[in-house]
Structure formats: C-alpha cells, structure tokens
Design goal:
single chain; alpha+beta; SH3 type barrels; twelve-stranded mixed β-sheet; five-stranded mixed β-sheet; 19 strands; about 15% helix; globular
C-alpha cells in the first residue's frame, strides 16, 4: 500500500494512493486520521486500512495536497558517508569507509511535503541536495537483531537530505547544517515493506533542472537498512514513525568540479525505482518568519 497524509478542503487526514486516486480510508472504523497513530496501531490497523480501500471515498490526486507522510516524525535519524561512490568523491577530504555507521539527527521540524519548495536560507547560500532511501519504523523496538529487522519496518519513502554545507562543516557534529526548516522533503508516500520487497536492489537517481546528478543502487549501501536498524536500536528505542535516511550516493553538488550548489529557482527530483519520486523547487526563505510564543 501507498500510505499518504493528504489535505483536502482544509482538512488533513490519512489515505492510500490507488492509481490516480487517493482513497480516504480515515473514514473507516479503526483507521486513524493521523499517520503516527495509524503506524502505532501496528498490523491490526494496517489490516483495517486494507479492508477499507474497496469501499472508502475516493478523490482525484490533483484534488488533494500531499503532505509529508509523517507530519512530525518522532525522530529523523540520518546516516553519513554510506555509499562507496560518495566516499570516493570526497577522497580529497580524507574520508574513509566507516567501520560503524555515521549517525546524526535532522530535527523533526525539517520534515516537508514531497512536492512543496524548500528554502534557500537567509543564513547561507551553500545549499546542496542528497537523494536517499528512507526507512520508516512501524513497531516500538529495542535490541533488534539484524535477522528480525524486517519485522519492525513499516515501509519506505524517498528523502532529500537537504544540507547547508558551511553550517554542516563548521563543527564536528552535523545537526545544525542538516536541520533547517523545510530541509527534509519526503514522500510521496510510505510504500509498505511487503510491496517494496528487498530494499537493497533499487536504483536511486537525482536530477537538478533535468540534469542527472546522482545515479546508484541501494545495493551499494555500506551499512544496509537491516544493519542500521540493529545498530540504532542497540542504543535507543525506535518508535513507530521514526525515519532513517540511509545515506546518499555520489554526485552531490559540493563535490562537483566546480561545485554546483542549489540556487533559487532550481528544481530537484529524486526517484527510487519501485518506490516513487519527489520533486521540490528552491525558493528564498521568506522574510518575516520570526515566531515567538
């Protein structure tokens, strides 16, 4: 199933994409209208969603606005230097293949819809894209052995780990440069794990203004999806709705010679074979966004 969060006539709720329609399964008994609650319901709730598809109201996809599948993920856990070709393009910096996953956080407020523009920040114009496969956790879990990792994964989504490079590199930890508001577009849906199949067999590509910049396959992950679940859950509890952005392949803008960073008006499209694609423009961060209280 392609699980979505969508807004129609000012009301946001959960649905399932079926071809060019969105099925409003939130009207059915036992199906929450909020994605976190839906995922927290586990297998029983997913079965209720499946049962609701045939009889629930349908809307044309162009009638609705697709939101980030999870409006506010409990955690966005991201993995750095996790494709061999990305490590190779950064060889001048002395980057090595990491023995252990390089983990950092993107703040949950960076979550952003799959087709809305994201911000070129006022604080910096050193802006870059990173196309990634996102793993969505479906069960609260701790100390998950690799061979059972599939049991706790609800599905997969496309992620752009948008990065403000100078802010990323000004300190040893990357959180500030990775966490600007709007800098984690994801979607367009959560494709359930049973339909995605083996997550380590899918082409991943990124285009900027129609120019192919990244082209790899998830088989090239240094630390794969199941190993990441095992590693992360050794330290802390994973919760339904947590998103693991598994790392980006080679072809990022900062590594090109000369660098090709994002500017206002650019259009970034990221596609993962068998999963879907997201597409976001780049706009100047609006003035007057200070919020106190």
């Amino acid at each position: 199933m392609k699980l979505v969060t969508f807004t129609h006539q000012g009301v946001t709720r959960t649905g399932v994409v079926d071809g060019d329609q969105v099925v409003d399964v939130s009207v059915a008994d036992g199906v929450p209208d909020e994605m976190l609650a839906l995922l927290e319901g586990g297998d029983a709730t997913l079965e209720a969603v499946r049962a609701a598809i045939s009889g629930a109201p349908r809307l044309a996809r162009d009638e609705v606005h697709l939101e980030s599948p999870i409006l506010r993920p409990p955690k966005i856990l991201a993995i750095g230097v996790n494709y061999a070709d990305h490590i190779a393009e950064a060889k001048d910096s002395g980057m090595q293949v990491p023995e252990h996953p390089v983990v950092f956080n993107k703040q949950s407020t960076s979550a952003h819809p799959p087709f809305d523009p994201f911000h070129l920040p006022r604080a910096s114009h050193v802006l870059d894209y990173e196309g990634e496969l996102g793993v969505v956790i479906g069960k609260r879990c701790r100390h998950v052995p690799r061979e059972r990792a599939e049991e706790v994964i609800a599905g997969y989504t496309v992620v752009n780990d948008v990065t403000v490079r100078d802010w990323q590199l000004r300190t040893p930890t990357w959180t500030m440069g990775k966490s600007f508001d709007t800098h984690c577009p994801m979607g367009p849906w959560i494709l359930t794990a049973d339909e995605f199949g083996d997550p380590h067999t899918h082409d991943i590509k990124t285009w900027v203004n129609g120019e192919l910049r990244q082209s790899s396959n998830t088989k090239n992950l240094v630390h794969d999806c199941f190993g990441l679940v095992e590693h992360l859950s050794t330290s802390f509890t994973l919760e339904p709705g947590d998103v693991i952005a598994t790392g980006t392949p080679g072809g990022v803008g900062i590594a090109m010679k000369p660098p090709k960073l994002l500017v206002e008006g650019d259009l970034v499209r990221i596609a993962i074979d068998g999963l879907g694609e997201i597409e976001n423009g780049v706009v100047a961060e609006p003035e007057g966004t200070v919020r106190i209280g």
